[in-house]
Amino acid sequence: PRNLLDFEGWSPERLQGLLESSDTMLQVLSRPVKKVPALQGLSVCTAFFENSTRTKISFELAAKRMSADVVSFAASSSSLSKGESLRDTIETLTSYQVDAYVVRHAASGAAHLVARYSGKPVINAGDGRRAHPTQALLDAYTIRQEYGDLKGKKVAIIGDILHSRVARSNAELLPKLGAEVVLCGPATLLPLELGQMPGVTVTTNPLEAVRGAHAVMALRLQHERMEGGYLASLQDYIDTYQVNSALMAEAESGAIALHPGPINRDVEISSEIADGESSRILKQVENGQAVRMAVLYSLLVGRD
Ligand code: CP
Question: Where L-aspartate is bound, by residue (predicted)?
Fold first, then answer.
């Protein structure tokens, strides 16, 4: 595929190729001079219509590490505020001969629109609750780094599944790589239809979710997308679903704890786990840069 909007059309072999290519990129990042000429002469536009720390910074660094020119489009200070449409905005940027777009938007499907109106490779950096494919790739990479392979691994994802593009992208990606995914949360935040995806089950029982799990991923409660009563109470959520020492003790011995960030500390994950030995949260962040280098290289140069 020419775009990474979600994982539709991405074969397990091509996805494995991206993970292997990420190994090479991680080696580049371990050198004293972390720059290669792979994308020299090409330009990448990061177009973020919604806030981000990790995804935006790591994509910009990833492109710069490979010598691409990077232009950052900030929606809040652009002519969108004067009523310019998304289509006119993208057509304007494309006239400057941008070679690829990295797009984050609150609306599901926005990255597809950018792909249609730019005709250039587009990487979805998170659209609404639909998909966040590079987050899932860096999650897969972090689990593979721990266990050598995704095959036969169980990954429990616990939290606000309803609003989570990270949960949806992991549910799409991890089974393609041979892992089993269990999605868990209170009934109000757990879309049962996700349990119909291949390799995915859903449960409201956190003990059932974590038993036998090699990785336990906590997801942020997206309070900004919750109007009205999604939770019996915040304390009730914490008591039942918080990823803490007691819950991790029920997982497979040596299981790792993950969180895509940003974290609501001591809500969906205890500080003890987030900062503890089993945590790979900062590894996820570190790996994100290498994985995004691999994705940019794959789409812009056409090789993994
Ligand atoms: N995980 C993630 O997408 O974080 P940001 O919103 O900071 O990019």
Answer: 82, 165, 220
Mutual angle of helices 133-147 and 281-301, in 10-degree steps: 120
In a domain, 6, yes or no: no
Cα(263) to centroid(ligand 1), Å: 10
Residues belonging to the binding site for carbamoyl phosphate are 54-55, 104, 132, 135, 261-262
Task: Report residue 138's pLDDT band, with 50, 70 and 90 as the boundaries.
Answer: very high
DSSP 100: E
Nearest to 291 by CA among 8, 6, 29: 29
Q: What is the pLDDT of residue 226?
A: 76
Residue 5 lies in a domain: no
Nearest to 71 by CA among 88, 50, 96, 107: 96
* Mean pLDDT calculated for residue range 64-76: 95
pTM of the predicted model as reported, rounded to 2 decimal places: 0.97
CATH code of the domain covering residue 109: 3.40.50.1370
Return the structure tokens found at 278.
């089993």
- Count of CB atoms within 10 A of residue 154's CB? 20
Residues 66, 56: Cα–Cα separation, whole Å: 16
Those residues whose C-beta lies under 8 Å from the C-beta of residue 279, and which sit 6 or more positions away, are 256, 257, 273
ipTM of the shown complex? 0.98
Residue 104 CA to ligand 1 center (angstroms) comes to: 10
- Domain-embedded: residue 7: no
Segment 120-125 shows an average pLDDT of 98
Q: pLDDT tens for residues 166-215?
A: 999 999 999 999 999 999 999 999 999 999 999 999 999 999 999 999 99
Do 138 and 264 lie in one domain? The reply is yes
Pocket (CB within 6 angstroms of ligand 1): 52-55, 126, 135, 260-262
- The tokens of 232 are what? 């019996």
Residue 11 corresponds to which tokens in the numbers above? 């074969």
